[in-house]
Amino acid sequence: MNLDKIFKNNQDWIQGKLAIDSDFFHKLGRGQSPELLYIGCSDSRVTAEEIMGMGPGEVFVHRNIANMVIGTDLNVMSVVNYAVEHLEVNHIVVCGHYACGGVNAAMKSADLGILNPWLRNIRDVYRLHKEELNALKDEEKKYDRLVELNVQEQCINLIKTATVQKAYKKRGLKVHGWVMDVHSGRLIDLKIDFEGILKNIMEIYHLE
Predict the structure, then answer these.
(1) Which of 41, 95, 144, 176 is catalytic?
(2) Which end of the chain is more exposed for a tag (fewer CB within 10 A), N or C?
(3) pTM value surpassing 0.70
(4) For each successive 10 residues of the chain (208 residues), what is the average pLDDT?
(5) What is the 3-state secondary structure of 77-106?
(6) CA pseudo-torsion sign 168, 81, 40, 36
(7) In what order do the strands lie in the sheet with 187-189?
(8) Could you tell me which residues are beta bridge partners of residue 188?
(9) Catalytic residue among 26, 63, 91, 100
């Protein structure tokens, strides 16, 4: 890859923005007020703003391998705290995608070194849903279903947090689970039952 091309692309992007709005970057420099926190996968095929048709300043983004929300991961927890308490976003989206390399790796028993503790969290999702997953004989369907279940479990992990619980009570913040189909580009809403999940876990995870 010729990195000079990136800087040429950047100049073209700047000129394109200025052609539409000569004040674009002045406005951008004033700060950000996104309505949505997007937690997605680091996969190079799934670019957050582009797949949603959003622009700079409209989405707060965190990405990691397999779109995980792990309570002991200070990176993602700091992002959630900042987005919810300081930027006051009203929606959090966990977005997975079919053909996810992280989920695929977690389905195998190979020793992957430093990735092992990270992938163990996905394997825990498999363990929680092994009856449903093992009933699927088609490996591709099993793979896709684990992608969906992983998104669901990461949404639950978000709902367990005091930060999300307080924002829900204060201003009605919602958590959503989506999957991108990389074969078509389509976003699929998994229709996460936010209120139902919250009600079911409050006996143990009531932190607000």
Answers:
(1) 41
(2) N
(3) yes
(4) 93 94 92 95 92 93 97 97 97 97 89 90 95 94 97 96 95 96 96 89 76
(5) HHHHHHHHHHCCCCEEEEEEECCCHHHHHH
(6) positive
(7) 59-64, 36-41, 91-97, 174-180, 187-189
(8) 179
(9) 100
